[in-house]
Amino acid sequence: MKIKSKKGISITKIYPFESKIKHELPLYTARISAGFPSPADDYLDKKLDLNEYLIKHPASTFFVRVDGDSMIDAGIHSGDILIVDRALEPTGNSIVIAVIDGDLTVKRIKKTNDKLFLLAENPNYPLIEIKPDMSFEVWGVVSYVIHKV
Fold first, then answer.
1. Three-class SS of residue 1?
2. Has 38 been annotated as catalytic?
3. What end-to-end distance do the CA atoms of the chain give, in Å?
4. For the segment 62-97, what is each residue's pLDDT rounded down to a tens digit?
């Protein structure tokens, strides 16, 4: 499924969160040096389950894959997967998944005086003012970005 948006970014897939398998990976307490290498075996602290670390509200969390470049200055690139939590209340600077007149988009939410705006994190895209005659809904707050380097 690809949901195309006129707002500079589209969502190509929506995935529900399913915690079927607990997959713990080693977590080292030592910081990794960007200079000279050092052995890390002595610093193994515990096992880390990424579900426990990244998913605070399993019943209200879903994933989306994005397509587009309107949020590149926020570190969201085409092909990235966003972890979205519907239980989080959007604050004045949250990045949200929003529906505007039937189009899904990823933008930063901003409230100024009595006006509500969605901001792209790319200067090539305009500010979107949410007006009373628009159909608008926040689907959830982006809590993490999974970006392949």
1. coil
2. no
3. 25
4. 888 898 999 999 999 999 999 999 999 998 899 999
Catalytic residue among 70, 110, 115, 135, which? 70
The one catalytic residue among 33, 107, 111, 135: 107
pTM of structure: 0.73
User: In the CATH hierarchy, which fold is given to the domain comprising 9-17+57-146?
Assistant: Umud Fragment, subunit A (2.10.109)
Q: Is 84 helix (H, G, I), strand (E, B) or coil?
A: strand
Active site residue 22: no
- Show me where the domains of the chain are located: 9-17+57-146, 24-54
What average pLDDT score do residues 23-40 get? 55
Burial of 145 (0-12, 13-18, 19+ CB in 10 A): middle
